[in-house]
Structures are given as C-alpha cells and as structure tokens.
TrEMBL record:
Organism the protein comes from: Rheinheimera salexigens
PROSITE patterns: CBS
GO MF term set: flavin adenine dinucleotide binding
Keyword annotations of the record: CBS domain, Cobalt, Magnesium, Repeat, Transport
Name this polypeptide is given: Magnesium and cobalt efflux protein CorC
Length: 290
C-alpha cells in the first residue's frame, strides 16, 4: 500500500536524524569520529553553518590535545630578565606587544614569575616611584607538564582566572608556554589583534636598505615594491614564499637569501610567520613611501 502523505519521506528522514542524535547521546560514543559524522551531517542539512561546524570540530580536537601540541616553543618565548632596567625593558615590550611576559633569571629554565605590563604603568608614570625593580612586580608563574590535557587547562584558566602557563618537560626544563588565547584559537581560529591589523600588507623602511615587511603582504605587492618576480602560484603572501624556502617553521632570528634579498624572521608564532626583516641591495630598494 502506497503512502500518499507528501511529508512521509521528510518525516522518516527527520526521525532517522533524531534517532542518530539520540543514539549518540544515549550511550557512550565508540569514538570521536561518531560525533564528527553527526556534525558533518548537521551542516549538510543546514542545521548549523560552516563556522559553527568549525568551532564544534575545534572543540573535539581540543579534547584530544595536550599542552605540548599547542604551546609556543621555548625558542619563540619573549621573556624579560629579572635584572633588566626600565630602559632595557621598554624596547622588548614595544617589539612584542604582549600583555604578559615570563621573567627569567639567567636563562629560560629559571622562571621567577610573570610580569603584567599594566603593573609597571604606575611606576613609569609616577616620578615619586623612581626606585623600583621587577622583583616587586612579579606574579606567580603557573607551571604545567607537557602532558596536561588542553581541555582541563582551559577549565583551570577560567576557574582560577589566569591567562598563561609555563610548560615543562619530564626533567623540569622549560619547553614553552601556553596562553588562554592559544587554546581559544584552536576552537575559533586565528585571533587577530590591533597590532596584527596595523602590520598587515605593510612595508616600512627601517634603514637605508633594510625594511620591515608583514609576512601577510601579498606576493604581487611585494614584487612591485622590490622589483622581484616571486611566483604568485607558489603562495599568496611573501610569508608563504619564505616559509616554503625554509622548509620548516623558522625561529626568530633565522635568515635565508632569496633572489638577492636577505629575509630574517623578526616575529613569528607556533603557527605562522608574522613579520620579516628584508635587506636588499641598493639597486633594488623600494622607493621611500609617503
């Protein structure tokens, strides 16, 4: 007997969908792929959009990650020495634009505490407080093992209201650091701040033949400025060209020569290049920008 109800097939599909949802949450899933399949089907059925799917996938990814998977490596940590004067400190703060810095004693294996940039404002602006040192401003450093689950760390960040943790290996040596932003970026994607926006698509002359170049500068814009001929099919940005040439994620200070130019990494994070220092010969220096 045929079913003349035009909504019959739709109702069956809806019931099948609900049955699958119920089966997932009424019993422990066999693995995360079960949940990923449900999320993917929900997007296909337009129950969620692509951005929502991306965030849900990010949450599932975070549930299986450890601190070692997302930490900023030791070599890329911006730190301040405990004996730095204000004159030595300010250039570091201006270059990196972070709100928190680990304070080290001699080397990065000896973390004395965490400096919040806002804590030094009262000392730099008040002439009556001319005598001070960083030891007076230190906040306790949170130490976690490399094996710390990222989802558990995020919960601690929220509950205890701290934003940075120092990651150590099994021998107690510092491996890197993790911030709450690093975790959130695993879920919602790259979080750009006002400093990132200022650097984007920007070429600035620093000296006669030395330039500060955002890694996000499009290849065609870079070629036009430096009279080069990097292939736009190889990468969209000059950072992509340089990263491909290195063949690995370079550390701050690493350099490479390409097409007669010297590219030095002046700023990067665990996922991408941020800023490059480009030194060129006199005959292919860009014209001075207004």
């Amino acid at each position: 007997m045929s079913d003349d109800n035009p909504h019959s097939s739709r109702g069956s599909a809806g019931k099948s969908w609900l049955d699958r949802i119920a089966s997932i949450f009424s019993a422990e899933p066999q693995d995360i792929s079960d949940l990923q399949d449900i999320i993917a089907e929900a997007e296909v059925r337009n129950l969620i959009d692509n951005d929502t799917k991306g965030m849900l996938d990010g949450v599932l990814d975070v549930s299986s990650m450890r601190a070692r998977d997302i930490m900023i490596p030791r070599s890329q940590m911006a730190t301040v020495d405990i004996d730095h004067t204000i004159e030595q400190l300010l250039p570091i703060l201006m270059e990196n634009n972070h709100s928190r810095y680990p304070i080290v004693n001699e080397d990065k294996d000896h973390i004395e505490g965490i400096l919040l940039v806002k804590d030094i404002l009262q000392y730099t602006l008040d002439p009556t407080k001319a005598e001070w040192n960083l030891r007076d401003l230190l906040r306790p450093a949170v130490i976690i093992p490399e094996s710390k689950r990222v989802d558990a760390l995020l919960k601690e960040f929220r509950q205890k209201r701290y934003h940075m943790a120092i990651v150590v290996d099994e021998y107690g040596g510092v491996s890197g650091l993790v911030t709450i932003e690093d975790i959130l970026e695993q879920i919602v994607g790259e979080i750009e701040d006002e400093h990132d926006l200022e650097e984007e698509h920007d070429i600035k002359r620093m000296a006669s033949h030395v330039f500060k170049v955002s890694a996000l500068t499009p290849v065609d814009e870079f070629n036009e400025s430096f009279q080069t001929s990097f292939d736009e099919e190889d990468a969209d940005t000059i950072g992509g060209i340089v990263l491909h040439a290195f063949g690995h994620m370079p550390e701050k200070g690493e350099s490479i020569q390409l097409r007669g130019l010297t590219f030095k990494v002046s700023k990067s994070n665990s996922r991408r290049l941020v800023q490059l220092q480009v030194t060129c010969a006199k005959d292919n220096s860009p014209a001075e920008e207004e």
